[in-house]
Amino acid sequence: MSRRITAALVAVGATVLALLAPASASASARPSPVPRTVVLDGNRLALTRLLVKAGVPQLRSELKTLTGQADGYLTQGPWSVMDKPQTAPSGDKHDYLSEAPYWWPSQPQTAANPWGCPYVQKDGVRNPAIDTITDHSERGAMFNAVYTLTLAWYYTGKAGYAERAALDLRTWFVDPATRMNPSLNYTQFIPCKVDGRGIGIIDFSQQFTDILDATAILDTGAPGWTGADRTGMTSWDSQFLSWLQTSQNGSDEAAATNNHGSFFDMQEAALALATGQKALATSIVKGAESKRLDVQLAADGSQPLELTRTTSYHYSDFNLLALTRLAQIGEHVGVDLWHYTTPAGGSLLKSVDFVVPAATGAAAWTYPELNFQAFAANDVIRAAADAGDRTALRALPELSAQPGGDVWLLRPAAEQLDPISG
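The chain above was modelled as a monomer; its predicted structure follows.
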């Protein structure tokens, strides 16, 4: 978090404390528990929680949006990899399975050729048939539910939110009967071509850091979240990190130079930090300077590797999502990616500034884009503004409305706001 944002929240928080409890501390005025988060700033969350409890008007609308979303998740799930009708090539239903989103059958599906092979790629055009394998969609629903429910509990103290988040996590990651194996050997398979690909790791890396932050928040004393749950999640995280570092799929994804590589680093660094390996996390974030930023960010702020896509605005924002979250992880370990300048003169903030005109409607996006959605950049612009970027800060009032409403002040880390993934 930027020093400016931190200082402002500390000052307001101190004022609220003084107003609430000049003589004796009430329950709402006591220091909020500070979660050991890996992307979100735990101190900022604790201060924001204090302001929510004090009834600061600017937070009421966002809290209403957040709790409205959380209320919807109270009656959904829990989800499990055991729900899918298919079984991974391993023969073990506990293995996560997903199909490549942009690959399509090229022949009629018949008894002799049930898949319609061979498959051909249509970049940016999603094959709806992949939804028959439920792991991908249920994983996404579970990630969103856990994160939203956990934040709703943290800010309101309502036990039901935490208890439901705990059930969702326990079902997907911990319970022996329903848990997912801590590996991704069969992600984004292509029928009649390959059983799984390293590129499929993005199914998880895109949003798994939300789960790491959610468990850290639940660890501050959430009802229904037990020591066994915490131990089970820590074990799963450690095994998953080991798989990422030793598997062929992990090696392939780590070698990717575009957004896939950025998300891999973000996930690996966050897992390292969450499992107590701060030196490893520091090394990963520091290494991203030359491995990611030097390779991806041009001097004019463009991202050439993402501009080649048929949905180039989406992928420019998508890669910035990974890099801004990686920069927030860097704040936890003393590495400043925000203000690093590449040998060519590029920088993370300059690349955020590059998408601002299209995001605010000040200029058209002139690169290939099958489905332009201006709001896709909202969160990365907010993140850059928090980091002190003046262009991003000036853009905030001009950002377009996004589906589902804005909860940035309660969840200040970039999320994917448009529906495309991959």
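The first strand starts at residue 97 and ends at 99.
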